[in-house]
Amino acid sequence: MFAIDLAEDAQLKPLEVWHAEEFLAHMDRGREFIGRFVGFPDRATDLDSARELLRTNAEKAANDGTRFFGIWVEGTLVGGVLYPAFDAASGNCEVGCWLEPSAAGRGLVTAACRVLIDWAFNGRGMHRVEWHVATGNKKSIAVAERLGLTREGVMRENHLHRGVRQSTEIWAVLAHEWSAARPA
């Protein structure tokens, strides 16, 4: 399995079915914090449901769809990034993230998302990468800004999360914009 260094003590690696116990422990540590805007904590409540979530996403990855990657700090899973949508035929995908409080503020999500966006454009020839974020998720919006994505609009009250209607901001970057912004 590959690993990409994000910092001296942090790595990005594929998040696999066999990580289910570790994934559940991670969800338990950050359940309320992560669950404010992300649905995983509500879907991975015990070992079987954690395993099923990872298995379902592994099947999607095998069919060139959704992919999950974990962020480990000093060997402990503390968050992750993913492609919640990946459509190679259309050249469009979406990147997303989650993180438990202990790892916040270190730039790990920004670094990990940069890896995913680079791979989408340079490894897979994607044309567009999107970032969907709840309007109240200021930390995630800041990541989109740091990555140089453009805010394209807001879908008002389009997403029901934990019984509350949330609005979603859409941010995106196109391949030619990404390559122009990257150092040679």
Task: List strands and helices in order, with pairings.
Blueprint: E1 4-7, E2 10-14, H1 20-35, H2 40-43, H3 47-62, E3 67-73, E4 76-87, E5 92-99, H4 108-123, E6 128-134, H5 138-146, E7 150-161, E8 164-174, H6 175-181
Parallel strand pairs: 5-6
Antiparallel strand pairs: 1-2, 2-3, 3-4, 4-5, 6-8, 7-8
Helix pairs in contact: 1-3
Structure description:
Helices cover about 35% and strands about 35% of the residues. The protein has about 180 residues and is of the alpha+beta class. The protein has a single domain, classed as Gcn5-related N-acetyltransferase (GNAT) (Aminopeptidase, 3-Layer(aba) Sandwich), CATH 3.40.630.30. An 8-stranded mixed β-sheet has the order 1-2-3-4-5-6-8-7, with helices on both faces. Helix 1 packs across helix 3 (about 45-60). The longest helix has 16 residues, at about 20-35. The protein is globular and about 40 Å long. It starts with a strand and ends with a helix. About 35% of the residues are buried. The model has no long low-confidence stretch (mean pLDDT about 95).
